[in-house]
Prior knowledge:
Layout (H helix, E strand, L loop, with lengths): L10 E3 L4 E10 L2 E10 L5 H10 L3 E2 L11 E5 L5 E6 L4 E6 L3 H12 L4 E6 L7 H8 L7 E7 L3
Parallel strand pairs: 3-8, 5-9
Antiparallel strand pairs: 1-7, 2-3, 4-9, 5-6, 6-7, 8-9
Amino acid sequence: MNQSRGLGGTVYEGLPLVDAVPTGMPTADGLIAALVLVVKPGVDQAEVDDFVTRYRLVPRGQTARAVDSQARWTLERDGRVTIQLLCEESAARIVIPSDPRIHQWTALARYGGGSLSLIIAPGLPDTDLTTIGYHLGPYGGPYWHISVGCIPL
Length: 153
């Protein structure tokens, strides 16, 4: 039995059809907070390509720095997390409802310096952490990412 990690009630604006999965990701510098956007089956790859190009996500193997992006996240006073991606012609937004798991995840992001990694991963059959882990691992599939800096309230 797979355990789905998506959070019900998450709002997506200006993104391909995805499910957001908050998690932690090991790196050479330690554990970082990551929000994995699992692209739903049937979404055209051209739509994913347009999204990653428009918001300047970089493919796996390249470094994404928050200072280079127009993406920011905020922990709202009511406990929701808002992630905004901006570019000249449009904007995208993800709003994750308040949840104890999200509070732990944002604490991980703050502990790691305030940035989180936003990852979009097409081709995954499910949102369980085992599937995501294999896909993001060294011999996994393609993904694009961007570093999202924190805007404190």
